[in-house]
Write a structure and sequence with these properties.
The structure is a homodimer. In chain A, about 40% of the residues lie in helices and about 20% in strands. Chain A has helices at about 5-15, 30-40, 50-55, 65-75, 80, 110-120, 135, 155-165, 185-190, 190-200, and strands at about 20-25, 45-50, 60, 85-90, 95, 100-105, 125, 150, 175, 205-210. In chain A, helix 4 packs parallel to helix 6. The interface of A and B includes residues 144, 145 and 178 of A. Strand 10 (about 205-210) of chain A pairs antiparallel with strand 10 of chain B.
Chain lengths: ~220, ~220
């Protein structure tokens, strides 16, 4: 797990609850937030530097803020990620001009693509970037079906991601495969609408469901 | 109605069916597509140049392709739009590099804002740009609730838009007011995801529903 924020800790805890071992990675080996998480998450939880976490994982999650993700990846030796599934949960949100944040990459490129280019031997899958951390690992917190979007160049990697999502309780009918990693642009450019909806609804506890059923005829 | 494409004709027909009179505007007074539409739509339907349609309407819909919307508005005298509700249905999709199209404006600006700046005396409301024409005017074509997003600086104008949407059959609980016209950025930047979903689902007959209900406790 790359990143010790709410997203990294929430996904990390969900994984340990499902019996996986998780190393939470940060810039320093003795990060205080990571230490508290290790103490609370119990068996199977550990911490280390980003490179340690990348080395440790069979599957690696990028949960760092999008504007620093590339600099984090630059601290990780290529060997540590070679052939591995790298699930990119991050969003390229630049808060330097205040709220709402602006996308730091969009339209003709995406953070998912940048990460794939920076880690060409990893198998990058964009996933889980379109909803808040609690819902990522506990979809049943909302009543009714709601959906996820995944994108990546490697079909086997996407299948591994779907297996993890099913562990979290996702109905795989609601996980939409949008195509190759260039399709990360859509879910990333959805973020401004998500932020506006959060403001309009007064909560981050929402998600979208793709409705495509037609009414019964007659 | 500005624009004689599928969107303009579909909304125009829905309005005439609800008893409104509609003038379909284009670059020329004798546009063939508009003429065929007038013949088929019957009483209440007419055609003219863009300026004629703007002058005619109490409420004006911009249904022109986004990349030409500003040039279309430049052909309309400011008086023709002063004080009127201008519903911007368009999307800034640039197909010049093929499919998928790229957004011609995004992140720090939007077509809705550009149109409001170009027509400062009009009351611009972004609406209906996030789904296909048939669903805009016939939401019951999908089973179950699905949603719309509106944005604009004038609350009274947004209320007029809601009245029209209710005529089309929309459940106003599912019409999300995102704020001022700068909030047009979100629904416009959602388009790349919409296009990807259309590809993944193999149909344009879909829309999203914002799910925010929590399950009953206990």
């Amino acid at each position: 797990m790359l990143g010790t924020g709410v997203v990294g800790r929430t996904i990390g805890s969900a994984l340990t609850e499902h019996g996986h071992r998780v190393c939470l990675g940060s810039r320093t080996a003795d990060n205080l937030t990571a230490g508290e998480w290790v103490a609370s998450a119990g068996a199977g939880a550990s911490q280390g530097m980003f490179a340690d976490a990348a080395e440790f994982g069979e599957v690696v999650f990028n949960c760092t803020p999008g504007v620093v993700s590339l600099s984090v990846l630059a601290t990780i030796p290529a060997d540590a990620l070679a052939g591995k599934v790298l699930i990119d949960v991050s969003n390229p949100l630049d808060f330097s001009a205040g709220f709402p944040p602006l996308l730091s990459v969009a339209v003709t490129d995406s953070l998912g693509e940048q990460i794939q280019r920076a880690s060409p031997e990893a198998r990058v899958v964009k996933a889980l970037n379109t909803l808040n951390a609690d819902l990522m690992v506990r979809p049943s917190a909302l009543a009714g079906r709601h959906d996820l979007f995944i994108a990546g160049d490697d079909d086997d990697a996407k299948e591994q991601v779907r297996t993890i999502l099913a562990e979290f309780g996702w109905d795989l009918r609601d996980v939409h495969d949008l195509g190759g990693i260039a399709a990360a642009r859509g879910p990333e450019m959805y973020l401004p609408l998500w932020l506006q909806l959060m403001g309009a609804l007064g909560t981050a506890a929402f998600n979208v469901h793709v409705v495509r059923e037609v009414p019964p005829s007659g």
